[in-house]
Design goal:
By secondary structure, the chain is mostly helical. About 70% of the residues lie in helices and about 5% in strands.
Length: about 240
């Protein structure tokens, strides 16, 4: 039951984001001058003009597309795409049964990605309502929280073609996959905590810290997995 409830949390949050856009629609001018001051440590242009519909709907629409993509991954269409992207990987990386083995973890990953996108939407709405200090904190705080949520479940991800750190080598070696994603999860949780702290104490640096932490975590995890693969004993068949 818990997994079923979790599966439908992302569309509920997307609907809430859409409702928020409708509520503030009349308070946003037709041509939206978006101010980004406070989000980066360097001076930014005072305004960047965009149509109101674009600013209010781009992130909820993106979140919906991403959610549909995640929902399609364990289907026959997803399997066909996986076979084209990872031709040399085992067949079970795209099998629906493989996704069922870590269903709760998969749903948490989907939720964390959707919340990350909607965090940007929340920050954008705050900026539209001239709450720039709030916007500068919401975005890195949501980024950090999503990283912590994502990192906590990474060690439980089974080899698959859509979630976790993936390469042909990792997909063909379950032990290397486990090492890579366990290390990635630890690094990304640390990055998320630091990002949330920056959102409170130094919001101008929060977004950059979160992005840099995510990139570094990916490199660290891939390095750990590939190092494990190289250090594993080999048995030559004569």
């Amino acid at each position: 039951m818990a997994s079923v409830d979790r599966k439908w949390l992302p569309p509920v949050f997307i609907l809430c984001a859409a409702a928020a856009s409708i509520i503030v629609y009349d308070r946003v001018p037709p041509m939206w001058g978006l101010e980004l001051n406070g989000l980066f440590p360097w001076p930014t242009p005072a305004t960047r003009t965009a149509p109101r519909w674009l600013g209010l709907w781009v992130f909820p629409t993106l979140a919906l597309i991403v959610w549909i993509g995640f929902r399609s991954a364990p289907t026959a269409a997803g399997q066909g795409l996986a076979r084209r992207l990872f031709r040399d990987a085992p067949d079970d990386i795209s099998a629906p049964a493989q996704f069922q083995r870590f269903e709760n973890t998969y749903e948490t990953i989907v939720l964390s990605v959707v919340l990350l996108i909607l965090g940007f939407h929340a920050g954008l709405l705050a900026a539209a309502l001239h709450a720039h200090a709030v916007a500068a904190r919401i975005i890195p705080a949501m980024l950090g929280g999503s990283l912590v949520l994502l990192g906590n479940v990474m060690p439980r991800v089974r080899p698959n073609w859509v979630a976790g750190l993936r390469s042909q080598r990792l997909l063909n070696d379950p032990l290397a996959w486990r090492q890579a994603n366990r290390t990635f999860g630890t690094a990304i949780v640390a990055s998320g905590v630091v990002t949330m702290m920056a959102a409170i104490g130094a919001p101008r640096y929060g977004l950059l810290i979160g992005i840099a932490g995510l990139l570094v975590s990916c490199f660290v995890g891939l390095f750990a997995g590939h190092e494990h693969d190289r250090s594993a004993p080999r048995t030559d068949v004569v």
